[in-house]
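Hi everyone, sorry if this is the wrong subforum. Our group has a chain we'd like a structural model of before ordering constructs, and none of us has done structure prediction before. Sequence below.
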Amino acid sequence: MNYFEIKPNKFLLPYINCYWTLNGKSDLYYDNTERVLPDGCIELIINFEKPFEQYCGNGKFEKQPSAFIVGQIKNYKLLKPSCNFDMIGIRFKPAGAFKFLNFPLDEISSQTVDAELIWGNDLKVLQEKMSDAKLSRRIFLLENFLLEKSLINKTNLKFIDASVNLINYGKPIFTVEKLAAKLEISKRQIERNFKQFVGIPPKTFLKIRRLQNVFKHIQNKKQIDWLTLSYISGYYDQSHFINDFREFSGMNPSEYLSSKESLVDYFINK
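Answer:
Right subforum, don't worry. Here is the predicted structure as tokens:
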């Protein structure tokens, strides 16, 4: 499999982290179940090959649409990959998807939504044009589509962007109360804005970012001091850390390190 990322143009950069592509012959067994972990971002994915299957409960899997939006997820998703990959995705910034969707993002939390239900025939035409195109042409078509959709929504996202940037790049913040104090606004206002523009409550977003930092720390490391890592990551104790880790990934830390699932290796911390 070949995975790489492309930065958006300057007009879309405020809303999009990157475009990513995954293509080539799979080195996974089709019957393998892979898991995808939350990263605090919404994605649009277009698949030009056989659809993946996604676990939908009660031991059943269902095929994903050929183009779909993945709303904010609060814990892991289980997927069965197809044999070959030819996919392109948009990883929006935490509040970036609202610019193009223009409805409260908590409405699609934990859901995989057929993109055609949102953009109708415009999306279908885009897929047809992109299908046999080279990557550079696909990016060109995709960016034109997004720029057209972005003109509809005039909402100013500077406040929520400042909140997210404070969490992602400022000194560690582990509670909504501390975030509210830093921004000098009410906790209720933060909660309302996060649900509408990010898709999940701020407490959940903080938990996801904290655990993403843990995953970033342990990638490619053979020996890990879990007690120290849980402390510097803001957990009350090791039990609190393990409980959150299991909720997030479906495994305890030791199980995760021994599994090293392939899709996790491709996508985590990208």
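For your construct planning: The chain is about 45% helix and 20% strand. The chain has two domains: 2-150, 158-267.
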